[in-house]
C-alpha cells in the first residue's frame, strides 16, 4: 500500500494543457468514481482548481504513478507531450506536498488562502462519495491542521502582493473597515476594474465610475455593480468620497489641489485616500500636501506589493519546518511506515 | 474648617508599625510600576511580531489593581481623597490614565495604546516614588467637605481621560507621519488602529474628560469657601479651551492632525500651569 500524488499546475503546464485537465464539480465526482473503480486504487481524492489538477491515491503494491498517469491521460484524451507536464510524489513526499498546497505555498500567489477551501471541498466530495478511507482521511485531516498552523504561526499570508491589494491595505489603514465607504474610480481600464473590485470585496458599498468616454464608464459600472458619473460631474462628487482611484490615460494631471481645496469644508476635513495608478500620473503630487489627504502612486503600491512578496518568500523556510515536524509527529499509514 | 487628627487608620498602622505601614504602601506603588513596565515591554514586543498582545492588557489591569491598593493606602492615611502631595497627585493621575486605557482599550483595538500609555504611567509613578514626594507625617482630616472632595477627584479623573486623549493624539502623529511619508515598514504601522479610529478615539475620550471636568468645576463652585480661586479659574479656562476645540471639531470639522495638536498642547500646557500653581 502506497500513497501517491500526481498532478500538474501553473508551473509545469501552460493554460492550454491545464484546461484539458480541469474538472467541473460534476466531472470531479465522476473522475473520483472512475479513479477508485480500478482494483489497484484503494482510495482517491481529485483536486481541480484554475491553476492545478492533482490526484491523491492510495495504490496497491506494484502499481504506481505511471499507471495513474496513463489512466488520467486516457480519461482526458490527452495526447500531447507529457515531458515536464506532470509531477509526482510518493509516501512522505506526497503528504508534505499536500500540506504545501493546503498552506498556499504552492500557489501562484504565495500564501493565498482560497486554496485551503478548495482542498477542503475536494476532500469533502471524495469523502461523501465514499472514495476515502483511513489513509486519506487521516492525511487530509492532518494537512488541514498543518495548513492552519502554517497560516497562524508564520506571516505567509500577510501583506498585499498586488497593486490592487496594496491599495485596499492602505485604505484600511486610513479607514479601518471599508464597510459603507464611498469610492470613485476615474478611468475605466483594467487596473480601475481590479482595484474597484478589490475595494468592493472588502466592503466598499458605494462605487462610482467616471471616464471621459461616458460609454466606457457605463460598461465598467454595469460590470462591477457601480454607478456611472459623467466626467464633468466628478468634482461635485468629491465632497462625499472616501477613496479616489485614478487610472486614466490622460497626459496631464486630472486631479489638482484646487479640486480638493474646494470641498474640504464640505467634507468636514475627513480623511481622503487617493490612489494614482496611472502613468503619466493623474493626481498632482501637491494634492498629497493637503493635511487629510493620503496620496499614493503606482511606484509606492508596487514597492509595497514587492516587499510583501519578499516577506512571504522569507517565511517559506519556517513553513517547511512546520510541515516536516507535523508530518514527522503524525503516525500516518502509507506515509511514515 | 476641617478638624485634624492623626492618621485615620490607627489600627492597621499600630499593628504593622508606622515604618512597615509606610513600606507596604510604597510597595504597592513599586508593584504597580513594575507591572506597568511589564505591560509596556510586552506591548513593545508585540510590535515586533506585528500582533497586538492581550497580555499587555492583562499586565495593565494588574497594574491598575496595585494602583488602587496604593491609593487606598494614601486615602486611609489622609481620611480623604489622597491629593495632598506630589506623590499622591502623580498616583491619582496614573490611576485614571490606566483606567481609561482599560475602558477604551478593547473598543479601539488599542492594546497597542498600552505601549504609549505605559511609559506615561511609569513616569508618573517613578516621580511619585522619589523620596519625600509621599509625605511621611500625614495629618488626617477628621471631617471632609463633599464638594471639595468631588472637585479634586473629578478634576484629576478628567485629567486621566484628557491625558489618554493626548496619548491617542501622539499615536495619530506617528501613524499620520508614517502614512503621509510612505514609511510602512515595521510593526508600528501594522499594529496601530486606523487613522479614522484614532481621530474618533481622540475626540470621544476628550469629550469624556471634558464632561468629567465640567462636573469637577461645578463641584468646585459649590465648595463652601465659594470663592473663585486662581486654581478654579485656570481649570475653567482649560475647560473653555477644550470646549472650543471640541466644538470646532464636531460642528465645523477639523483635520485629524490639528485635533491631535490641540489635544496634546492643551493637556501639556494645562498640566504645566497646574504644576506651577
Care to describe what's here?
- The complex is a heterodimer of chains A (337) and B (277).
- Chain A has 337 residues and is of the alpha/beta class.
- Chain A contains 14 helices and ten strands.
- Chain A folds into two domains: 2-156 and 315-329, Glutamyl-tRNA reductase, N-terminal domain (Beta Polymerase, domain 2, 2-Layer Sandwich), CATH 3.30.460; 163-302, Rossmann fold, CATH 3.40.50.720.
- In chain A, the strands form two sheets. A six-stranded parallel sheet of chain A has the order 7-6-5-8-9-10.
- In chain A, helix 5 packs antiparallel against helix 6.
- The longest helix of chain A has 20 residues, at 134-153.
- The radius of gyration of chain A is 25 Å and the shape is elongated.
- Chain B folds into two domains: 1-134, Four Helix Bundle (Hemerythrin (Met), subunit A), CATH 1.20.120; 145-277.
- In chain B, helix 2 runs antiparallel to helix 5 (113-128), helix 3 (54-78) runs antiparallel to helix 4 and helix 6 crosses helix 10.
- The radius of gyration of chain B is 20 Å and the shape is flat.
- In chain B, 45% of the residues are buried.
- Classes of the chains: A alpha/beta (337), B mainly alpha (277).
What is the end-to-end distance of chain A? Answer: 10 Å
**CATH architecture descriptor name of the largest domain in chain A:** 2-Layer Sandwich
How many structural domains does the protein architecture of chain B include? 2
Largest interface: A-B, 22 and 21 residues
**Proportion of residues in helical segments of chain B:** over 70%
Structural class of chain A: alpha/beta
Sheet with the most strands of chain B?
2 strands, antiparallel
End-to-end Cα distance of chain B, whole Å, is 22 Å
Beta percentage of chain B is: under 5%
Please give the radius of gyration of chain B in angstroms.
20 Å
CATH class of the largest domain in chain A: Alpha Beta
CATH class of the largest domain in chain B: Mainly Alpha
Number of strands of chain B: 2
Mean pLDDT of chain B: 80
Rough outline of chain B: flat
CATH architectural label of the largest domain in chain B: Up-down Bundle
| Strands side by side in the biggest sheet of chain B | 1-2
Discrete helix count of chain A = 14
| Unreliable parts of chain A | none
